[in-house]
Amino acid sequence: MEVLSQGRAAVYEEPIGPAGVRIRERPRTDPKPGTVAVAIKAASINHLDLWLAHGAQRVTPPRVIAADGAGIVHASADPSWKAGDEVVIFPTLCCWECEWCRAGENVKCASFGVLGEHSDGTACELIHIDARNVFRKPKTLSWEEAAAFPLTFLTAWRMLTTRARLRAGETVLVVGAGAGVAVAAISIARHLGARVLATSRSEEKRKRALELGADAAFDSSAFSKGVRGATKDGVDVVFEHVGPATLDESLRSLAMGGRIVTCGSTSGVKAEITMPRLFFRQADLLGSTMGNASEFEAVLRAIDDGLRPVVDTVYPLDRVQDALTRVDNTEQFGKVVLSVSDA
């Protein structure tokens, strides 16, 4: 079902970085059957938006950016929702009707996509979206917090629970602490009862990781030595999203039978693997992207139990280029949020 971003919106127009994303006015229409029109209160920035802005994704502009959004139902053409309901957006796109979707495996749908990449996104005043992509906003979260968690917490939750099978009492290493998905991973791993180690090039971000609950934090340069010194024989799980720049050190950090789970490659798309480190350690190398509706519901329950996203900074929609630049410069710890409407 088509996603329509309307009203004032942040639109990717040129592959020249943050300057290529500009505020434009989109026409407004009535929602089609089965869809909900959500007046967005806040949206948030992900690395995905930067990849679009830099032309790294195969997306033909124009495209409204952002996968994360929270707001108030403005109008509904589906009986599940009514005007005034406070909601968050599930950012996984799928057909909802195929065999995989009926089995609850939305990420395996042939029509799988990500909001803001394969369709217009949430950085807009009003979005029309399939009613099945709408969930009730957690009452404990502010609008900015509600816009900060969907993509990163959904991604990190699936990585750690479904894919890596992290158990209470195990040790997980979160590489590249500071990025939104890594901050989510630290919080989720602690919530699940795991011991958490973290890495970052930034001393300030290492301090923030410790404040968030990491037991130890290491400089990103040759971190495996410190990790192995802080553990008996390495970690049970490595949470990866950086790729070529860190993958070898992540392999060196694994305990026997450990698992590396990755959702990204911010340092490049091709990496070399020293194969004996993989097979002699009986290691698992696991890929993961986004998550299913049932996993999103699990995240919402965890938020009700006290899990919280971390908001780095909040910019008004008009300053979307500044928001993108902050992420582009890796200055953030947690999520950079766009305030779309104060009304």
Explain what the structure shows.
By secondary structure, the chain is α/β, with parallel strands linked by helices. The chain has 2 domains: 4-149 and 309-339, Alpha-Beta Complex (Quinone Oxidoreductase, Chain A, domain 1); 153-287, Quinone Oxidoreductase, Chain A, domain 1 (Alpha-Beta Complex), CATH 3.90.180.10. Helix content is 27%, strand content 29%. It has helices at residues 47-53, 99-102, 143-148, 150-163, 180-191, 203-212, 223-229, 247-252, 275-279, 293-304, 320-328; strands at residues 4-12, 21-26, 35-44, 63-64, 68-76, 86-89, 92-93, 113-114, 124-130, 134-136, 171-174, 195-200, 216-219, 235-240, 254-262, 284-287, 311-316, 335-339. Strands 1, 2, 3, 4, 5, 6, 9, 10, 17 and 18 form a 10-stranded mixed β-sheet that branches. Strand 12, helix 6 and strand 13 (216-219) form a beta-alpha-beta unit. Helix 4 (150-163) crosses helix 5 (180-191) and helix 4 crosses helix 10. The longest helix is centred in the middle third of the chain and has 14 residues, at 150-163.
Layout of SSEs?
Layout: E1 4-12, E2 21-26, E3 35-44, H1 47-53, E4 63-64, E5 68-76, E6 86-89, E7 92-93, H2 99-102, E8 113-114, E9 124-130, E10 134-136, H3 143-148, H4 150-163, E11 171-174, H5 180-191, E12 195-200, H6 203-212, E13 216-219, H7 223-229, E14 235-240, H8 247-252, E15 254-262, H9 275-279, E16 284-287, H10 293-304, E17 311-316, H11 320-328, E18 335-339
Parallel strand pairs: 11-12, 11-14, 12-13, 14-15, 15-16, 17-18
Antiparallel strand pairs: 1-2, 1-4, 1-9, 3-5, 3-9, 3-18, 5-6, 6-10, 7-8
Helix pairs in contact: 4-5, 4-10
